[in-house]
Amino acid sequence: MKTKYFYILILGFLSVFSTGCEDRLNIEKHGNKGSQEDFYKTDEDALQALASLYTSWAANYYNWFYTKNLLADDVWAGGGSRGDNPQMEQLNEYTFDTDHSMIQGIYSGTYGIIYKSNLIIDLLEPDTDVKKRAVAEAKFYRAWSHFELVTLFGTAPVVDHLLTPGEYRLGNSTPEELWEIVESDLNDAINSNSLPSKSSVNDNVTGIRVTKEVAQAMLGKAYLFQGKYSEAATMLDRVVDSGKYELYTGDYDQLLHAVADGSPESMLEVQKRNDSEQAWNQYTMTFIMQGWRTDKLNITGSASALIASGTYGFMNPKKGLYDAFMEMEGANGYRFNSTLRTAEQMETAGISLQTGANLVGHEGYFMWKNRALQADNVYDASYFQVLQYINLRVMRYAEVLLMAAEAHVQSGNNGKALGYINQIRTRAQLPNLTSVTLEDVKKEKRLELCLESVRFQDLVRWGDAETVLANQGMEIPSYSATGVEILFKNSTYGFKSKHKLLPIPLKEIELNPNMDQHADW
C-alpha cells in the first residue's frame, strides 16, 4: 500500500510544474499545519516529502530544457516574429548577460531541488524501508542538481546540508568540490540497497521513480564528464548488463510522444498522465512553444486530424542539422525522416505555408519527431495547446549506450564501443560500423539526441564549442514562399571563451558579497 500511495502522490504532485509564465505558486498558509519538527516522522511523511521533491525537479524542466537546447547549434529560437521572446533569442545568439531570467531560473530552481533533497536527507530518520528509499532518491536528486551546477556554472556553492542563517551567503565552490558531492551522493544512493531495479524491461511502474540503474547511469555520466573514462565504462556497462532497459522498438517517430511514456528506453522522465479531471493542474508550456507556428500554416487532409494546432513555432531545426543527417543517412534515412522534414515533404503531408506568411528563425526545415499530435493531448485546447500528457524526457537508454561507447573509445576498448554504437545504428536502420572513433560517437550522438538537452554540455566538454558555435547568431534567417533570406544581423554574437561557464546570476552576486563572478562576465 505504501508504494501505491506514493504513486498517487507523485502523479498528483508532478502534475504541477513551472513554465515561462507560471514560475512560482504563492499559496497563503491557513491555520497551523505543524512544523519541520512535527513532520518527517512517518512513512507517509516521507512519501509526501519525496513527492514535493519530484515536483520541484519537474518545475525546473522548462528553463532547463530550453536554455540548454537554445545554447546548442541544432535549432533557431524562432517564434512568431523577431522579438517574440527576447530571452530565448539572447540565449540562441549569445547576446545574453548576467541578468538573464532563464539562466537565473535554472540556478535558483536547481537550488530549490537541493533544498527539498536536504530536508529529506537531514530530517528523516531512515529506520524503515520507505524512508531509506526516500533518502536514497533525495541523494540522487541532490547529485543530479550539483551535476547541472558544475557543468553549467562551474563554481556554484556546494550545499550538502540544510543551511543555518549564518550560512546563507556561501562563497564559490571549486569544480572539484562539486564533483566530489556528485560522486559521493550517487555512490551512497547506489550502495544503499534501497533503490529498486525494474523487474523486467517492460516494468513501467518501478521506473516512475529512480532506480538503481538510473543512479548508475548518472554516475557513469559524471565520470565521463570528468575524463574518468575507465570508471565511466565500468559503471555504464553495469546498466547495460542489467538487462533492465532496451531501445524502443516501436515507430521511431513516436519515441518522444505519449505512446512511448515509460517505455523500456525510458530512464529518467517527468511523469505526466492522461487525466481530464486534472488537465489544467498539469499543463506545460514545453510543447506549445516548440510546436510549429500553426497560425501561419495550412493544415489539410489527414494531417488536420492528426496535428494539434495552436502552437508557437520556437526551436526550428537549422540547415546544419539537416546536412548532418543527409551526410549520415541520405535523403531516405529512416531516423532522418522520423526527425526532420523539409518544406516540400510537409506539403506532401498536407501542410503548407499560408500565402504571404513568413517564419522567423527558420530555413525551411521542420522538426518532426516532437511534432504536436492530437493523440498526445489530454484534450485538444487549440486556443492554448498546453495539455499534453507526454512524459518530459531527461535521460533515455540511447544516451547510456552512446556514453558507454564514448567511454570505451577513450579507454581503448573499441570492440565494446562498436557493439554499443551499432545498437543505435541498427535501430536507425543504418549499416553497422566496422570500427569506431570518437568522431563517430559525436556524430551519432548529435543525430540520435538532437533537441534532447545534451549537446551544449557535450560541445563544451569536448572542447568543440568555440569552433562549432563561433558564428551562432550572426545572421537570423526567415523563410517564406520565395525562399530563405536574412531577417536580422547581430553585431555581437557567438560562443566566446567566457561562455564555457554560464554567468553566476547578477541577483546572486548583488545579494551575496562572498560570491565572485566568472572571468570576463
Summarize the structure.
The chain is mainly α. It has helices spanning 2-13, 43-59, 61-71, 86-93, 101-123, 129-152, 175-191, 212-225, 229-241, 286-290, 303-306, 319-329, 334-337, 343-348, 397-411, 414-427, 438-448, 455-462, 465-468, 506-511; strands spanning 75-78, 266-270, 297-299, 314-317, 340-342, 351-353, 358-360, 365-367, 392-396, 475-480, 483-489.
Q: How much of the residues is beta strand, in percent? A: 5-15%
Q: Which term fits the overall shape?
A: globular
Please give the alpha-carbon distance between the first and last residues: 53 Å
As a whole number of angstroms, the C-alpha radius of gyration is 23 Å
Oligomeric category = single chain
Quick check: average pLDDT? 94
**How are the strands ordered across the major sheet?**
7-10-11
Low-confidence segments: 15-27
Report the sheet with the most strands, covering strand number, pairing sense and barrel closure.
3 strands, antiparallel
Helix content: 40-55%
Structural class designation: mainly alpha
Helical segment count:
20
Q: Number of DSSP strands? A: 11
Write structural notes for this entry.
The chain has 521 residues and is mainly α. It contains 20 helices and eleven strands. It has a three-stranded antiparallel sheet with strand order 7-10-11, with no helix packed on it. A two-stranded antiparallel sheet has the order 1-4. A two-stranded antiparallel sheet has the order 2-9. A hairpin with a 2-residue loop joins strand 10 and strand 11. Helix 8 packs antiparallel against helix 9 and helix 8 crosses helix 15. It is globular. The relative contact order is 0.14. About 2% of the residues have low confidence.
